[in-house]
Amino acid sequence: MEKTTMTVQELSVQLGISIPKAYELTKTPGFPSIRIGTRIIIPIDEYKKWLQETSKSKEGVNNGNI
After folding, report:
1. Do 46 and 6 meet the contact criterion of CB atoms below 8 Å apart?
2. Other CB atoms within 10 A of residue 22 CB
3. pLDDT of residue 60
4. CA dist., res. 19 & res. 7, Å (int)
5. Is residue 10 within 8 Å of 26, Cβ to Cβ?
6. Backbone dihedral angles phi then psi of residue 40, each to the nearest 5 degrees
7. Which H or E element spans position 41?
8. Closest Cα partner for 6 from 30, 33, 42, 36?
9. What is the structure's pLDDT at 66?
10. Residue 40, burial from CB neighbour count under 10 angstroms (0-12, 13-18, 19+)
């Protein structure tokens, strides 16, 4: 069975950021995360969509096309 979610720790490894920064990212409006009690999980499919949309919206800024 394929994994459908990842932990904040896995997110930090995936993005190459610290664990505190990964927790901060999960609190960002629009970032896909699910809180179950004190546990935070990230749906992988929604994360991939968010990452793709975020990188597309940043392309215009990086190319000077605001």
Report:
1. no
2. 20
3. 54
4. 10
5. no
6. -120, 130
7. strand 39-43
8. 42
9. 42
10. middle
Inter-CA distances, 15 with 8, 12, 53, Å: 11, 5, 16
Q: Which strands, in side-by-side order, build the sheet including 39-43?
A: 5-7, 39-43, 34-36
Q: How far apart are CA 49 and CA 66, in angstroms?
A: 22
Structure confidence by residue, pLDDT tens digits, 27-63? 999 999 999 999 999 999 999 999 999 888 766 555 5
- In single-letter form, the type of residue at position 10 comes to E
What 3-state DSSP class applies to 47? helix
Name the one residue in this structure whose structure tokens are 């896995």.
10
